[in-house]
Amino acid sequence: MPTTPTGPTDTRDADATRASSRSKRDEILRTATAYFGENGYEATKLADVAAAVGIGSTALYHYFESKLHCLFVIMADALRVSRSEFDSYTGAHEDYLDGLVAVLRGSYNLSDQDVLRNRVLVAHQGLIGVRRRPPREEEARALAHARVDDLESVWATFLSTGMKRDILPEADPRLVTRALLGLYDSIWHWYRPGGQDSLQDVMEFFVRRQLAVLGLPPEVADG
């Protein structure tokens, strides 16, 4: 009588299945980000995303229960990357101003896919404040919402430290954070890769304006 394989073979097969599933999920997210960012969220159908990825619509719903669920996951991923980069840039410098300039400049070190993801995030960020009934939508929404709060919190704490050290002028760190991040977010409403302005030019212009929001002279950007 045939027997069911057990042991290491089962483990390898399960690992391969999970890896394949993660790979397909990542491909769906990349494709959805491109569609949402270039064509608009409202104009995009999940069926279009599924066709571009090469799977049926039914199979796509295995990964995301709705278009909004997919959107929330994209937004949560964008915020996760922003937090990771904040930690990386600020943690790499002992000098406060060096760390500040590094994180401001580093936030413009983006691929075209990153730009699209930022565009999707800022265009629909208001949606994460509204609770959803479908459980997977709500889980992804709540995660994105928590990551917004977390990113604002670490920035406010960082700026508060600079104020306590008399490096930055005294102000409400929460409001300064929102002004700083709001200026940065505004870029993704209009910036397009390959457009009239290069991302390098945008960075040089906006980092100086962000420093002005913080009450620092533009020369600080030059180190």
Model description:
With 223 residues, the chain is mostly helical. The chain has two domains: 1-63, Orthogonal Bundle (Arc Repressor Mutant, subunit A), CATH 1.10.10; 66-222, Tetracycline Repressor, domain 2, CATH 1.10.357.10. The protein is 68% helix and 0% strand. The chain has nine helices and no strands. The chain has helices at residues 8-39, 46-53, 57-60, 67-91, 96-106, 112-124, 135-164, 173-186, 199-213. Helix 4 packs antiparallel against helix 5 (96-106) and helix 8 packs antiparallel against helix 9 (199-213). The radius of gyration is 21 Å and the shape is elongated. Residues 1-7 have low confidence and may be disordered.
Short description:
The chain has 223 residues and is mainly alpha-helical. Helices cover 68% and strands 0% of the residues.
Features:
Arc Repressor Mutant, subunit A; disordered N terminus; 223 residues; Tetracycline Repressor, domain 2
